[in-house]
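Risk register update: the risk of archive-format incompatibility is retired. Evidence:
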Amino acid sequence: MPHITVLDQNTINKIAAGEVIERPASVVKELLENAIDARATAVTVEIREGGISFIRVTDNGCGIPKEEVPTAFLRHSTSKISSVEDLFTISSLGFRGEALSSIAAVSQVEVITKTSQDLTGVRYQIEGGVEKSMEEVGAPEGTTFIARNLFYNTPVRRKFLKTAQTEGAHVAELVEKIALSHPEVSIRFIQNNQNKLHTSGNHNLKDIIYTVFGREIAANLIQVEASGGPVKIRGFIGKPVIARSNRNYENYYINGRYIKSAIIAKAIEEAYRPFMMQHKYPFTLLHFEIEPGFLDVNVHPTKMELRFQDGEGIYHMVLTALQNALAHKELIPSVELEDGREKKEAEQLRREAEKLVEPFEKERLEKLHMVKQEREAVAGETKLRETGAFYGFHQKPVPAENRKTLQSDPVVQKENPVTPAKLANSQGENRERHEGKQLDLFGGKLLEPSSRLRHRLIGQLFDTYWLVEFDNQLFIIDQHAAHEKVLYEKTMKSLKDREYTTQAVSPPIILTLNDNEQLLLEKHMESFTKIGFEIEPFGGREYAVSGVPGNLFSIAKKELLMEMIDQLSEDTAATGAEMIWERVASMSCKAAVKGNHAMSPAEADHLIDQLLQLENPYACPHGRPTIISMSRYEIEKKFKRIV
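Archived output:
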């Protein structure tokens, strides 16, 4: 029989390290968070060979007092908490006191640190949890941590690491996430002696979004701000046009900590559901400020998960905040006819900007690019005036004083410095200037009732798409998607207002159900009955449907009803009438006019009138766009009327 023994400290440390340190990115996370907790305003992260052979994190924070350096590497030593009560009011990123001891247990660590009170700093070396040396050295205020040869003394764990390229990608992703969570800290990331990221620390979140995600996303952001009780939300969400096929762009932070939360993810995706196709996910970057007493962050060693005191309240607050942000926005996707050469030039310019080391150098290049665009805009406007094709009052001409400014050197102008985010906005405004797309300014949204008289219905394309001219834009409406959305919202409204009727079906529709399907039907029978279904047992495994909601009468077939029950089985957690309504409304879309169907202009006009009355007319129930647009500027550019 095996004997029970107490493990030695070295084994204990290595086991603890296994819970906290999984790969080089884990080391960077702990050291970078410690630097931010030390009130650093600038941090440099450098790695080589994916961080496996070398990691260095340097900060200008408060440093560690000489006499406390060896203590910092003991397990459960921390400056963040002092008693169990402090666990309920944690505001720092780290607090367990396991990071440094775990890193030192599986690597060769060197730390150089100095506080503002000390005249000199200290250099401390510890390898595999064993202290090697400690000496006085000259050093600037702050701390530098160097971790070499990760898992050198646990070769089995080292074998489970991926390639240096893969591990480096994990570190890069982590540094980006932390940079996005702390726009007030300037963070530089160097990989194999190459600068990969450098944020300015100017508190501007949109600038960092531009730096990390690029111009397309920065130019398609919607600001979000909400507060209620102990919770505040601020940040940006993307317009549906920048949807992705995975959740990698769903980022949210709580009190500066990057976390994953099923509650928040569900609220985000529910808010976007009317605008997104299935299996598409939005861009979000949200910062939550929540009073520490309403959180439990001491859930998991990596601190990636936490618990809310009121999860339901958080869910509804996020859902409402995003729904309000998305509501009443003109979310019609615009088609840009940019040719391959233009795309290549734009991408090359961005790559050159990213290669530059210093942010102010990047900003200088972006200024030049903006001025180039402004000059092209002025030239385009002049050309339009000369050809008699000026757009009229929807055009937003460049003021004369701005034109004078464009003739001078842009680099020496110090007022209103151009940030990456401003550049993205400016480029968007340049397009709008020529597209005549100042819709919000003039109250000229396509689907506003006041704009209806200015629509010019051109005709039908491919018996499927209707073309509408409005305010120097060509709008293309998918008749099937538009009619689907009209029927869906009409059905949902009638169900919620209890304006439903029952239409008798003769002969009845007979459904043959298996045991699971019978259970589902019995479970939801009351909800089915409330909205107009009449369903009765017909003996054995069969049920007779003798009545259906009036709006389903023309499409109520056995196959559709079985499909509806199959869909219910996919969502076993859902209960109540609303879930049934959703399925019924989705089924009503089957009655929508199809593509390749010739509609009369009067029918198309009526369809547009119905779209005007919808809360969200921009996407069908499946997330496909109902309308897309193309600007006059893009068309004339393609025909070389504008050079």
